[in-house]
Amino acid sequence: MPCQAGSPSISAVPASNTIVALSTPPGRSGIGVIRLSGARALDFTCSLLQDNHFSPQPNSVSLRTIYDPANGEILDRALITYFKSPRSFTGEDMVELSCHGSPILLLHIVDALLHLGARAADPGEFTLRSLSSGKINLAQAESLRDLIDAQTHAAVRQAARQLGGELSVQLQPIKDSLLKIIVPLESSLEFVEDDLPPVIAERINKQLSDLVQCVEELAQTFRAGRLLKEGLRITLAGRPNVGKSSLFNALLAKDRAIVTEIPGTTRDSLSELLNLQGIPVLITDTAGVRASSDKIESIGIERTKRAIADADLVVVVLDSSIPLTSEDQDVFVEVGASRHLFVFNKSDILSHTYQDGSLFGSQAPVIKVSAKTGAGLNDLRDALLQPFMRDFSFDGGFLITNARHFDLLQRTATSLRASNELFQQRASEELVLAHLYNALNYLGGITGETTSEEVLSHIFSTFCIGK
């Protein structure tokens, strides 16, 4: 269908219903993609092409010249991809402009579309329109954000499985079983004055118990899912010149931090992402902890203390070539009750050794390594994850990775337990049903059937613009 700029059918549609955004990250790149969605997406595209007869085939790509609507100057040669409603991501007419990736050029084209009458998209608005048109459910929409934010291959796989609707598949049998319980209870409430027959009562009791177990088992996968999605924060702490930066570089297998023999070289905290067995680990090198009158070093030490407080695990780095010092003791005092382990660096020139449970009265493990030779690094990598492996029994199965989903599953299990207890106490069907309907409502909240506008607004505000 050719463009119909100015025709009654098009102009009757509010321009603000058509949104535009840059969908690729800001900055210079080979290609930048600009997205349009709404009834006038093709109309605005025709204005950029200065061709009211442009009539692309749906799901096709055309190489065309883009002009500045203000003065007719050529802006770019771009690929124009047209998706016709309802066969598009949003369910509306959509156009994607694949332009050359100059930030100035892309901004100029977006500004031109805004002047033509398009509206700048809100964060996640394309995905929200996809949800509204029934193309995806809420759990799948959230998985898009998780897929974009994924930091390891394992996290990508989990997000992709949720995007494919696996969570909905997991929840559907639970919803079906709930309805099979609700129907006879509703019938008993409406049409039967006597109690339920013992056979039916026993069946409902077993169904409720099985449902509670099923929901709880699904919710328990969040322990591993949270680690997979959010990862761990690990801080290297110690007095100056024990080799924290050398150890940091060795774990990363690259020279990220400056290393010298001068104590106090590291003045600020330095963080990098490390992938350990599919878990994203943010590891932080810090300034050495000691009393200092140097203003810059003192600021670095304060940041070290904050990094220690924020860490899931603190690695207390010690120098195995010399006896423990009072400064080592001060570092341990700073670590306090934080989860920690001890690492004796410079094991290639080892002269002093300590065993687990023999340091400062702590029962934390002791690992011997050499950042110089690499000895013991694999043991250290295993030790970094060991305190969390109870929560990370990841066998490649499906995991709950979203805290909102976990909360709703917990609420579902609580409602199911309450209904089961009331049923066993022979409480009235109204009370039992109230909790069952609450459970059904919580499950619907995961996939969006019963989610309030306020919750939706909060969820989609966390999306990037253009998605």
Describe this structure in words.
- The strands form two sheets. The chain has a six-stranded mixed beta sheet, with helices on one face. Strands 8-9-7-10-11-12 form a six-stranded mixed beta sheet, with helices on both faces.
- The chain has three domains: 114 residues, Probable tRNA modification gtpase trme, domain 1 (Gyrase A, domain 2, 2-Layer Sandwich); 141 residues, Four Helix Bundle (Hemerythrin (Met), subunit A) (Up-down Bundle), CATH 1.20.120.430; 160 residues, P-loop containing nucleotide triphosphate hydrolases (Rossmann fold, 3-Layer(aba) Sandwich), CATH 3.40.50.300.
- The longest helix is centred in the middle third of the chain and has 26 residues.
- It contains 16 helices and twelve strands.
- The protein is an alpha/beta fold and 467 residues long.
- β10, α12 and β11 form a beta-alpha-beta unit.
